[in-house]
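mind reviewing this fold:
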Amino acid sequence: MKYITLNNGIQMPMLGYGVYQIPNSQTKECVLEALKVGYRLIDTAQYYGNERGVGDAIKASGIPRKEIFITTKLKSNHNVERLIEQSLADLQTDYIDLLLIHWVMGDDLATWRWMENAVRSGKVRAIGLSNFYGTDYDHIVKNAEILPAINQIEHHILRQNHSFHKT
């Protein structure tokens, strides 16, 4: 497995297994299979409703937690501290490797501050953004105490984000 070093020195696998649209009832089985074939990055989100299944799979896998990189995303900018605690409980872990703001939600800088606090407390190892563009992205970067490690951009045949392509 190839890894990339994030801006805070943490190693993240270059290839991950995403669980979008997998029902929670099937997530454990799917993630266990992914871990069995060598995936070590699992990408989930509160919005997907399957963090509990991811946690069940990681627990059942027998693979040490430190060898699995968990990415999850916040579904709201309300009660951020409680949402982080809920993800930790559902994922059955003491820390999240990478926590993202899932999409632009409004007062994202306030959300970012809560995420920075979660890094300082050790509940989260790295923080970043998902689907942020232009001034929304710039606003976080210009005002962050901890810079985003990632801006995860949705990109596929039906959604091509040419503004993020290198020329």
About this structure: The helical segments are 24-36, 51-61, 80-91, 108-121, 134-143. The chain has one domain: 3-164. The longest strand covers residues 124-130. Strands lie at 3-5, 11-13, 17-18, 41-43, 69-74, 96-101, 124-130, 151-152.
